[in-house]
Amino acid sequence: MDAPNPYRTPDGKDGATAHNRPLFGLIAIAVASVIGSVLAGVWLMSMNYVALGRRGTAWVLRLVIVPVLAFAAISALGYVFNAQGAQRITVVLSYLVLLPAAAYLFADWAQGGAIRAQAAAGVPARPLWHAVMVALAFVLFAIMFPLILMLTFTVIGLVESSA
Asked: Taking 60 as the threshold, does the pLDDT of residue 37 lie above it?
């Protein structure tokens, strides 16, 4: 009975803690989703997948899910600007409450086991301020992107009108 167990993972670690790289916690994902929209929360989840060694899943989140959510966010903002009274409040509340709650629940479903396993193994989580910085980068991008587009189209318009 002293023979090594062939079914044990290397070094006796489970799959969730095999890399021992810190992950963003569920609260950090929720806070980032409130500050920088659900896009920032999904981006943090993709960073967690990279830390877990699942780069393919991270790239699927970054290249498929984030653009789809960005389109949905832009569409919803367009609806907010055209909505009246209670409709506007409903959309704003969904941005501030329902979408971050959905990001939290999705993160718990998709990565909660790995996050809890690392906490149980004593691996510290990534600091909350890292999540806030990622969220603020999304806010900055959301502000700068339309300005860059307007500047680009203005320059294109000036070049076409002078030609």
From this structure: yes
Structure tokens given for 4: 């090594």
Give the phi and the psi of residue 153 in degrees, each rounded to 5: -70, -30
Contact call for residues 131 and 31 (beta carbons, < 8 A):
yes
Band (pLDDT 50/70/90 cuts) for residue 16 is very low
> DSSP alpha helices (H): ranges in the chain?
26-51, 55-60, 66-82, 86-93, 99-120, 128-162
Alpha-carbon distances of 8 from 4, 21, 135, rounded to whole Å: 8, 21, 39
Q: How confident is the model at residue 32 (pLDDT cuts 50, 70, 90)?
A: very high
The one-letter amino acid at 40: A
Q: How far is CA 74 from CA 37, 86, 89, 95, in A?
A: 11, 19, 17, 12
